Amino acid sequence: MTDPWAVTRPGGDAPANGPVANPTPVGGVPIVPPPRRRRWPRRVGVTVVALCLALVAYYAVTLFQVWNTGRSDEARPVDAIVVMGAAQYDGRPSPQLQARLDHAVQLWQQGLAPVVVVTGGKQPLDRFTEADASAQYLIDNGVPADAILRETQGQNSYDSLAGVERLLSAAGLRRVLLVSDPFHSLRIRLTADELGMEASVSPTLTSPVQGRAAFTRQLKEAAGVALGRVVSFRRLLEITG
After folding, report:
1. Is 0.85 surpassed by the pTM of this model?
2. Least confident of 5-14, 126-135, 205-214
3. What is the reported pLDDT for 94?
4. Is the pLDDT of residue 68 over 70?
5. Which of 16, 42, 66, 211 is the most buried if burial means most Cβ atoms within 10 Å?
6. Three-state secondary structure along the chain?
């Protein structure tokens, strides 16, 4: 009996290996498989969403760390207390710089270090550097002049800390206690670590930068820290200027 579903070769010969299924069903209409759905757009979308969520989470964790470090006093015996510079007005420290210096005086009186390093250069037309204004304030408040070192070239935190590292390494010193505003503390500690110093922080709690202004600075610092950890703080300075 002839198989109605068998397909023969031209000339009426049956296939050498037996019958071949007829792709055309009864009625002569071929079965067309449904088109395959493209999945790559969905996968790309899921990947982008996951990446965005990861970046948001990374920034949120960094912001918390900026806030938490600003609340942490790591004061301990070190080789040098380092006061980060801020604005000065013709030799007189600004309220923000004065708050840092007052805290440094307290740390000095506790005998935590034999040396205080003050930092910061000057703007065009200024007569005094931030470091010089800071040094004079410390002297006026009981810190001996021969216990003060001055880094007078830095125009930003990275350059100031790089200058501090050069000053201290020449004397074989590397353990530092950094004094600045709370929002600034994590970035300068990580920068000092990158430069090869063993750093801890003791933020001033009397800074005039408070409330919304301080929170705005925390947001900015978190962005800088998050990026600096990835590309290095030296490279971050090159990018941002």
Report:
1. no
2. 5-14
3. 97
4. yes
5. 66
6. CCCCCCCCCCCCCCCCCCCCCCCCCCCCCCCCCCCCCCCHHHHHHHHHHHHHHHHHHHHHHHHHHHHHHHCCCCCCCCCEEEECCCCEECCEECHHHHHHHHHHHHHHHCCCCCCEEEECCCCCCCCCCHHHHHHHHHHHCCCCHHHEEEECCCCCHHHHHHHHHHHHHCCCCCEEEEECCHHHHHHHHHHHHHCCCEEEECCCCCCCCCHHHHHHHHHHHHHHHHHHHHHCHHHHHHHHC
